[in-house]
Amino acid sequence: MAERLDLGRRGEELAARFLRDAGYAILERNVRSRFGEIDLVALDGACYVFVEVRTLRSTALAPEESITVRKRHRMAVLGQQYLQAHGKLDVEWRADVVAIEMGPEGKPTRIEHYVNAVEE
Length: 120
Known about the structure:
This protein has one domain: Trna Endonuclease, Chain: A, domain 1 (3-Layer(aba) Sandwich). Helix content is 31%, strand content 42%. It contains two helices and five strands. It has a five-stranded mixed beta sheet with strand order 1-2-3-4-5, with helices on both faces. The mean pLDDT is 90.
């Protein structure tokens, strides 16, 4: 379990750096509510972006394939709840996915950013 948490934290750090390098501003990390967690909250210009980070060691399953319909729905709900809690109901927003595959030596072999991965 600890190894999985370390992998997840490493993935979130890589995703945050990847997004910052692409011009995003990272506002918050690991925003928790009773309904779930948003890995990263970012700004892409004036657009709020709620990011799900999926990090897996290289396997037959790609990280992005592990996001179920239920998880996509939850991502949209969490984003809407975040905006409501912060009085930002009238802003543009979307939910993205950053998929990271890690090689056996613990270095990323692939980082893929899926923009607007959740449509609600």
